[in-house]
Known about the structure:
This protein is an alpha/beta fold. It folds into two domains: 9-247, NAD(P)-binding Rossmann-like Domain (Rossmann fold, 3-Layer(aba) Sandwich); 262-302, no CATH class.
Amino acid sequence: MSLDFKGRVAIVTGAGGGLGREHALALAARGARVVVNDLGSATDGSGGSSAAALAVVEEIRAAGGEAIANGASVTDFAAVQTMVTDAMATWGRVDILVNNAGILRDKSFAKMEIDDFRLVIDVHLMGAVHCCKAVWPVMMEQKYGRIVMTTSSSGLYGNFGQSNYGAAKLALVGLMQTLALEGAKYDIRVNSLAPTAATRMTESLFPAEFLQALKPADVVPAMLVLAAENAPSRAILCAGAGSFEAAHITLTQGIWVGRGNDTPEQLAARLAEVRQRDGENVPDSGAAQGHLELTKAMSQLQKN
Ligand code: NAD
């Protein structure tokens, strides 16, 4: 797999600090021209300043790379469209989009205000939707695109106090699943990255000795592999402290229970069999899952 990005143009959102900054620096160091997007807000999404994005652009230029700064909020579709138009006007293409911008508004669900739920969905999910929508026609036309969604273990597996964030982060995996299918014939590959790193977002979550080991730069190899020319599509890679795993949304073999009046009781009695995980698989699409169920039912009905 080539990890040379010469000639490629990348947009990295939320690239003024933390993981996004490392992604932008690494792509630029490997030859990509980079749009460094960042609203420059606090972790809770308040405020904004162009200073963070500009500083990363300066770092890239000082190292001999090419970059432009962009201060759009990913929640503003018109501003995101302008960001893509500017990238096209400057470099004539957009090959890579890393949806990385994010905020937190943590609280247990009982105490969470609806506005805090909505804002987190707006930044993570709608922000990524806006960026994907703006680059999609460009990537279709080029017949080339690589999109990386930044998901999270909170979305994949849950985390106390993060119902808003977890819902938004798993929604990005759902977005990936369909965009990967729809983009396939245009060589648009869409993947997800679940990072673990010491940034301002996590500094209060981990003890100091863990934070030492969780360098944001250690997540970058997973992003590079997911954004590369030979990237997979529909992969979910987890990365932190030099460890890498793949997460899957699997389907158990299940059983055909039937369609009698007592099906609810039958299902309740055999729930352990339905849930048992030997031989589970990852369907190619939602339609493939439906097809599997129908096939199982048909073969049983033919036997009866
Ligand atoms: P961070 O706070 O350092 O970076 C987030 C960046 O996004 C900030 O620079 C911020 O200014 C920017 N931003 C926020 N709202 C924006 C908006 N509306 N438009 C444009 N930019 C905006 O935190 P980080 O840890 O580097 O987070 C990067 C991504 O990784 C986030 O999506 C986060 O949810 C995700 N993530 C991080 C971890 C981790 O362990 N750090 C774990 C799982 C997921």
